[in-house]
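Hello support,

Our group uses your service weekly, and this is the first time we've seen a run hang past the timeout. The protein is Oxaloacetate acetylhydrolase. I'm not sure whether the cause is the sequence or the server load. Input pasted verbatim:
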Amino acid sequence: MKVGDSSSSNLAITITVEKDGFYEVNGTRQEPTVSLYMTAGASKLRRMLRETDDLIVCPGVYDGISARIAMGLGFKAMYMTGAGTTASRLGMADLGLAQLYDMRTNAEMIANLDPFGPPLIADMDTGYGGPLMVSKSVQQYIQAGVAGFHIEDQIQNKRCGHLAGKKVVDLEEYLTRIRAAKLTKDRLRSDIVLIARTDALQQHGYDECIRRLKAARDLGADVGLLEGFTSKEMARQAVQDLAPWPLLLNMVENGAGPIITTKEAQEMGFRIMIFSFACFAPAYLGIKSALERLKNEGVVGIPDGLGPKKLFEVCGLMDSMKIDTEAGGSGFTNGV
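Update from on-call engineer: The timeout came from a worker crash unrelated to the input. Re-ran successfully.
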């Protein structure tokens, strides 16, 4: 069997496969080899968007244990929340205090817990500066293994999208960020998914949001995100106004907008849905309750069976034991 492949530069390569499994490339005999490559998270996410109509549901994770739990429950994608990252790493409110180093290192850790695992979408805030910083941020997210990111039009002194008092830059400055991000991912030949986010609703209204997202779409952004819908009708209208461009819905319960379920979002036509506070808020409630009991009763009150080993199993204990044992190590000879 011969396969000829010619490119636009008229370079022809002829491969001859023989019955014994050996093959020739332009007359040179070669042994058969098989190379297996991991599918990068970015390519997985892009394929999910391109080849299915399913809503991609992403719980908002903010550290290793929350990500491990999400993976253990079989979620097909995850979202690294900026609010949760700021709170967990800095102990601060989401007021633009986390910078590129904080966000990239957290995203890199989460994205690489399981290289074969679900793709990770990560918050990139404003890109952390002008075009050069946006480019640097995109490159570092790509190198970290992030599958997709959203970049927004708030001023550098930004805040959580579900707080009042947000201010955005003018359209041209916003498009400079989008353009820098697109140029960088193209230069690096990355499949990373570029999500254009606008927070202009509070300051400029719905029509300006649509104008900004259409402009970002025209520059090559892969997905749009209008932050802070004030009604279900507005959310549904945005999908229609921007169709067939895929939109992401950020669902923040008790935030600026109504509660929209995954079923409703699917019916509206959203393609990705992130739940930014899905882990952060329950963690606060659980930790607070446990520490109140410790303070008042002298014990934490952890349920039977939830000991150190069980928690470590969630964090990959069995995989670590397998690696050590198969390599001939003796670290777990006597068990754990």
